[in-house]
Design goal:
This protein is of the alpha+beta class. The chain is 34% helix and 19% strand. A hairpin with a 3-residue loop joins strand 13 and strand 14. Helix 4 packs antiparallel against helix 5 and helix 10 packs across helix 12. The protein starts with 33 loop residues before the first strand and ends in a 7-residue tail after the last helix.
């Protein structure tokens, strides 16, 4: 591993499901190599509505940055811009946004670089996080060593790549899915700190939370930001640190500027961030815990696609999505029936996403043992997720499916790349599938 490279273990991913050789390679050589199209839930039109929705295609935009710039452009609050899910930055993404504005004004956003606005109409309310069905992906893996131009492998290299792709696909098709890890985007591929910030919020240590986000330099980030973060980390000199932080670190600077005006008010400093980003910190810590639990289930050889006694399974809802708030315990008397339901994709084996209402939500049997051990190792109890200083960050917890179902998977090997098309349910990560094919360091994702 190269100096500064991020390891997946930093965010709780400790194993692969497949046993095939990895392709290597790299994602997102260009944004067009990572195309995401949201399967949106379109709200009903309302000519008298004070919101409007639009289908927005972004090239190489981070979602929160688009919200910030779009709200400024329209002269509205960031809170007046809604979306169903955060998308990847170095990508071409299409999704619904809502704006508390009129269609004519929203149409003007097309003037922004690499922004396309379509299908604008009025609605009664804004879009909220989670209001989507899933996403469709078209992804290229480039710089695969066996396909590299000038490679000594030639035609044999391409055949070997085809064999690896086919064998990996066959392993995944046997369970009709892949491990439903929270992917690298949840934590930050360049600087995986969101779960660390979340841990300190849950512990009620807001000074450490702020320092983990504003300070806490990571070897994989640019030198100027490393130096600025290191200075603040070691000196806590807010005024001098502001002179070092590049303007592109907008959120960090806003927190420092607040601390300069309000000494030692770390809760207030954290609250300068967009609410969805603050909430993501807590969710990221929950995701880290989930990843540890799922890793241990795989290591122990427990199945992902069928239940064992003591598991909780999630039935599907009216949209054929796993219902994370309804759990059915697997017992000796119902395991045969539930096994049939899981094969039919009408129920999914789950693991705990620990939160404020999770004290009695642990599975039974071996899975329950795994869940309890991880939570106990972290020294947590459910009340820790009641965030008293910022109540809106309190999270109840639920359960999440351990298997992400494979839908519409197509793989094709070209002379210069491997191309994959597939569909995922909401909350599932493309990189968690792609890592099973590539088996490379996080920076290649």
């Amino acid at each position: 591993m190269e100096v500064g490279e991020v390891n997946e273990s930093e965010f709780g991913i400790l194993t692969y499901y497949t046993r095939t050789r990895g392709l290597g390679g790299k994602l997102r050589v260009t944004p067009e190599d990572f195309v995401v199209r949201e399967r949106s839930i379109y709200p009903s039109m309302s000519n008298a509505g004070c919101f409007c929705v639009a289908k927005v295609t972004l090239r190489n935009w981070e979602t929160n940055r688009f919200v910030r710039i779009a709200s400024r452009y329209l002269g509205i609050s960031r809170k007046a811009v809604g979306f169903a899910g955060t998308k990847d930055k170095r990508a071409v993404t299409t999704q619904l946004f809502s704006f508390k504005s009129c269609p004519e004004e929203v149409g003007r956003l097309s003037a922004l670089k690499d922004v396309k606005i379509e299908d604008v109409y009025r609605v009664d309310r804004g879009i909220e996080i989670g209001e989507l069905l899933g996403n469709d992906f078209e992804i290229n893996i480039r710089e695969v060593p066996l396909l590299t131009k000038g490679s000594v492998f030639g035609i044999e290299g391409k055949r070997e790549v085809e064999d690896i792709v086919n064998e990996t696909t066959e392993e995944l098709r046997k369970i009709n899915g892949f491990p439903n890890f929270f992917g690298v985007q949840r934590f930050g591929a360049v600087r995986p700190v969101t779960h660390i910030v979340g841990k300190y919020i849950v512990e009620g240590d807001y000074k450490k939370a702020v320092k983990a986000y504003v300070g806490n330099p990571h070897p994989s980030e640019p030198q100027d930001t490393r130096e600025a973060r290191n200075f603040f980390e070691t000196t806590e000199d807010v005024e001098s640190a502001l002179k070092l932080y590049p303007n592109r670190l907008v959120f960090e600077r806003s927190m420092l500027e607040y601390l300069y005006r309000n000494k030692d008010d770390y809760v207030g400093a954290l609250s300068q961030l967009p609410f969805n980003l603050m909430l993501m910190f807590v969710h990221s810590y929950q995701s880290y815990l989930f990843n540890l639990i799922l890793s241990e289930r795989i290591k122990r050889g427990l199945p992902l696609n069928e239940p064992v006694i003591g598991d909780y399974v999630l039935p599907i809802d009216k949209n054929n999505l796993p219902d994370h708030d309804k759990w059915i315990e697997v017992t000796e008397s119902n395991i045969d029936k539930i096994s049939i339901r899981t094969k039919e994709k009408k129920a999914y084996v789950s693991a705990i996403v620990f939160g404020s209402e999770s004290e009695n939500a642990f599975a039974k049997g071996e899975m329950g043992e795994i869940e309890r051990k991880v939570i106990e190792r972290e020294g947590l109890n459910s009340k820790d997720f009641i965030i008293r200083e910022i109540p809106r960050l309190s999270t109840k917890g639920n359960r999440r499916e351990v298997l992400a179902p494979l839908e519409n998977l197509e793989c094709k090997v070209y002379d210069d790349r491997v191309s994959l098309k597939f569909s995922l349910l909401k909350g599932e990560y493309a990189t968690s599938l792609l890592r099973e094919y590539m088996k490379v360091g996080v920076m290649n994702y």
